Every structure is written in structure tokens, then in C-alpha cells.
Amino acid sequence: MSFRFADHPIDTAAxxxxxxxxxxxxxxxxxxxxxxxxxxxxxxALEYEAFQTLAVKEGARIVAEASVRFPxxxxxxxxxxGRLALTDMAVWVGVCATHRGEAFDACRFIIDAVKxxxxxxxxxxxxxxxxxxxxxxxxxxxxxxxxxxxxxHGHEPNAA
Amino acid sequence: MTDHRDPSSEALQQAGSARPPVFxxxxxGGLSSRMQRDKATLEYRGKRQLERAVELAAEYLPEVFVxxxxxxxxxxxxxxxxxxVDSVPGEGPIVGIRSALAARPDVAWxxxxxxLPFLSRAALSQLLAERDPTASATAFRSAHDxxxxxxxxxxxxxxxxxxxAYQAVDGRCPRKFLMRHxxxxxxxxxxxxxxxxNTPDEYREALRSFDGKDSAPVQLKIQYYALMRExxxxxxxxxxxxxxxxxxxxxxxxxxxxxxxxREQLKVAVNSxxxxxxxxxxxxxxVVFIPPVAGG
Lengths: 160, 296
Known about the structure:
Chain A is of the alpha+beta class. Chain A has a domain at about 5-35 and about 50-120: Aldehyde Oxidoreductase, domain 3. Chain A has helices at about 10-20, 50-70, 100-115, 135-140, and strands at about 5, 25-35, 35-40, 40-50, 70-80, 80-85, 90-95, 120-125, 130-135. In chain A, strands 3, 4, 6, 8 and 9 form a five-stranded antiparallel β-sheet that branches. A four-stranded mixed β-sheet of chain A has the order 1-5-7-2, with helices on both faces. In chain A, a hairpin with a 2-residue loop joins strand 3 (about 35-40) and strand 4. Chain A is elongated. The termini of chain A are far apart. By secondary structure, chain B is α/β, with parallel strands linked by helices. Chain B folds into two domains: about 20-205, Spore Coat Polysaccharide Biosynthesis Protein SpsA, Chain A, CATH 3.90.550; about 220-290, Beta-grasp domain (Ubiquitin-like (UB roll)), CATH 3.10.20. Chain B is about 30% helix and about 20% strand. Chain B contains ten helices and 14 strands. Chain B has helices at about 5-15, 50-60, 75-80, 95-105, 120-130, 160-170, 175-180, 200-210, 225-230, 245-255, and strands spanning about 20-25, 45, 45-50, 65-70, 85, 110-115, 135-140, 150-155, 185, 220-225, 235-240, 265-270, 275, 285-290. In chain B, strand 4 (about 65-70), helix 3 (about 75-80) and strand 5 (about 85) form a beta-alpha-beta unit. The N and C termini of chain B lie far apart (about 55 Å). The chains are: A alpha+beta, B alpha/beta. At the A-B interface, strand 4, helix 2, helix 3, strand 8 and helix 4 of A face helix 9 of B.
């Protein structure tokens, strides 16, 4: 399985072991961590939710596309769901290939595509007790995705 | 707190602040002159449109009547329903509306033309939810000309006297009446619901858009995630709907739950695979609306 979800901390050593291959000379990983700020707001925790049946299909398609674009040996992406605290790992991507260049490129391709295409949602909890779904509530107020002042409109749908 | 035996409080309720019940009135007294055949009996998906309109209204309203001219009372496609026969002089739908208001002065009437093949539960839900009983009427703004639509509207008891005065002096157009008198005008969530069908060409086009599918509402499973789960107040539901595409379904659900995201911001999945907004839905399909994603 090249893409899967975990509802517990990701075991990176076990994930790395799944990718071991005598033909691979380079191994690249990306870890996404929970950060304490986003768009100027202090974040205290994140909640991830996924439409898992479609998400694992789309994730597997992304990995398959990566292996068509880049001559890689193996790739694996594991994404967390549930509530995460600061510094927790939200996502892990591991890629091995004959040479390091393809491994770096494929790893970057996979994490970028996962963020844009896989039906996973993230709710941020803020220091002031507020919370919001990333990319939804701010953009419902500003469909043009005008970062900055527009996001201060809050959560009113028809602010524009 | 309220003593129902106190005659003065009953009098107060009747005098003003009461919210009269809503009955349904499906208009089937038209001459169908442009269609060149009786519009009430036109069929979509195997069901006469008069029958469909009455059944749809009956899902929401305690009593539904069909408005007819005196000459139509024995017509078999109409006589099977409770009828309100025109009782005031004149021509056009204003006569049917006034006759209903005269027959039951204590109720408001949700008046429906019988020739609205795209009329949806979403439209009826919205009309009833956003009704203003202090206005003369509550009506949708037409998506075509921006004017109020009198034949998918709730007419309050107080409009009876105003309509009588209007008809006596100004004429017979209920749309103009709504523009001049204090009607509450709603922006329709389901813009297609009010498309009426007047000519054989329009009928053929409407038939094509139904694609010959079965008339019965289909049962769909809907799952909600993230912001949409919170706004719907549930993670899933099973729904009987006449929506034939994800686009129609989203209009219906947006009107029901007040989703803040526009369709343009969403993707949709049918049976756990991405689908187009015009995908034809079938019974048992499982539908998920996908708000903007934010993995990683």
C-alpha cells in the first residue's frame, strides 16, 4: 500500500524498513509537523479528518504518477488523522530511487500533490479558543483567495 | 403562561400576531392555449404534472386543493382532488387565488402553478422557511426577469381584501400586485425550480432534460466531512430526492442546511470516486461533497 492513514503516531523506522531495496542508492523523506502559527494566528492544536475511501485511492494514484514521472524504486506516504499537538508529525513521505536526484524530486512531487488533491481536512485550534477549517472558512468569505485583509472578514459567508 | 380559556387572549391571537396555517392550492384552471393541450395532464417521467404538484405540496402542507373553473369540476383528472371552484368574477390566476382566500379566510395559501416540472423540495422548503406572515405574500424573485413569481408563492389572508381592490381598479396581473404591495421577495436557492413550460417546444426540451428516467424519487446516501459536517449537523444521511445530478442535489442541500460554500468551491464524489456535477445519479449512490482540501 503506497498511501495510508494512521490514527496513531507514525512509526518512521517501520515505514523506512518497508522501502528498503538493494537497487536503491538514495532515500529521501519528508515529514510535515504541526506548527504553532498559521496566517498570523497562534495555533495550539490541529485536527485532521479524511474521506478515507477516496483519499487512499487518490493517494495511490499520486504515487503511481510519481513513479511514471521519475525512475524511483519505492514510495510511501502515511498521513495522520485525529487530533495532533504541536510538533507532532502530520505526514510522512519516503522515496527511494537509484540516484538521489529522482528521490528528491519525487518526494517533493508527492507531498505537493497530496496537499492539493487528497480529500483531507485540517481544523486549526487557536490560542484564543477559536477554531477554523483551513481553506474553507476564510475562503468562503473571500472566494478570490485574496490573502491578507480579506481573511479578517471572519466566517460570514457573504462578507463580499 | 397563556390561559387558553381567557377570551381576551384568544381574541388577541386572532386579531393579529397569529401565524395562520398554510394550505396548498395547485392552479389547474388555465386555458393552456399556447400548449394546445391540457397542461395539467402533461406527463414527466410517467406522472401527470398536476398529480406531481399535488403530491409534492402534500408532503409539506396539511391540506392541498386544486383550483378549477366551474366548467372543469367533472373533469376526471381534476375531480379526484379536493377542488376550489372559481367563485369570483374575472379571468386568470388571480381568480383562483382570490377564490381560495374567500373559501378559507383563516389560512394562508401556498399557490403553485401546475406547470412547474422542475419544482423541487428545496424550493418549497425555502418558501415555507422564509415565509413572512406579516407581508401580503412571500414569493421568489424570478431568475429570468427579476420580477416576483406569483404562482409559487404564499398568499396570506390579509391579501384577500388587497387583491379584491387591486382587481377592481388595476387589473388582473398578480405579478404587478406583488410588486406594488408589501410582498416579501426571496432569492431562489434552486433557480430552475420556477421554470414553467408553456409551449410544445418547451415541453419537448423539458422532457429531454429528464432523460426518460423513472419518476420516483431516488434514495441516496450522503456523507459529510469537515466544515460541511458541522454545518449539516450530521456525518451522513439517507435521502429521498428527485435531484438527478450532484449539482441539483447540492442546491437542495444548500437550501436546507445553509452551507456557506458555493458549488464552485467544491468537488463531488459519487461512490467514492470523483464525479462531474452533471453526473446522472442513480438509486443507492453515495455522494460526498468535498470542500477545499488541506492535507499535509
